[in-house]
Design brief:
α3 packs antiparallel against α4 and α3 packs across α5. By secondary structure, the chain is α+β, with helices and mostly antiparallel strands. The two termini are 31 Å apart. The chain has a three-stranded antiparallel sheet, with no helix packed on it. A three-stranded antiparallel sheet has the order 3-4-5. The protein is built from five helices and six strands, in the order ββββααββααα. The protein folds into two domains: 67 residues, no CATH class; 52 residues, no CATH class.
C-alpha cells in the first residue's frame, strides 16, 4: 500500500490506499483490485473524525493496473511495461511526468527505442 500504480484505463497514476482480496475458484486468496482516495486511506487512520469525513474512493481492477517495480520492496517484481506500448507517446509522457524521476526512468527504459524516443520528445515539448 501507499505505492503508485498506473491505471491503464485512464491512463493515469494513482496511489494505492487499500488492497482488495477475493477467493479464486480453487479457494486461494488473490488480489482483485485496489482502492484509492481518502476514504480508503481513512480506514487505516484510527480517528473518528477522519473516518466520518465524506470522501471519494475509487476501485481499480487489478487487471487494469501496471505495477511500478521501483515501488515494490526489494525489487520483487521485475519491470514489465509491455502494455504501455499500446499507449500514445504523449500519454506515456504524461504518466512518466506524474511519478518521481526514478520511476519515470523505469517507464522509459522499458519501452522499445523508437517509442522511448517519441515519449521523451513529448516530455521535452510540453
Amino acid at each position: 500500500m501507499d505505492s503508485q500504480v498506473i491505471d491503464l484505463r485512464g491512463p493515469h497514476v494513482s496511489r494505492v490506499n487499500d488492497v482488495l482480496l477475493d477467493h479464486d475458484a480453487a479457494g486461494f486468496w488473490q488480489v482483485s483490485g485496489v482502492q484509492t482516495g481518502l476514504r480508503a486511506l481513512a480506514r487505516r487512520i484510527p480517528s473518528p473524525a477522519v473516518v466520518a469525513a465524506p470522501a471519494q474512493t475509487r476501485l481499480l481492477r487489478w487487471a487494469d493496473l501496471e505495477l511500478l517495480a521501483g515501488e515494490i520492496p526489494a525489487g520483487l517484481a521485475p519491470p514489465d511495461h509491455h502494455r504501455l506500448a499500446a499507449l500514445h507517446p504523449s500519454e506515456i509522457a504524461r504518466l512518466a511526468d506524474a511519478v518521481p524521476s526514478r520511476l519515470s526512468a523505469e517507464i522509459v527504459t522499458a519501452l522499445d527505442d523508437q517509442l522511448a524516443a517519441d515519449t521523451m520528445e513529448e516530455m521535452i515539448d510540453k
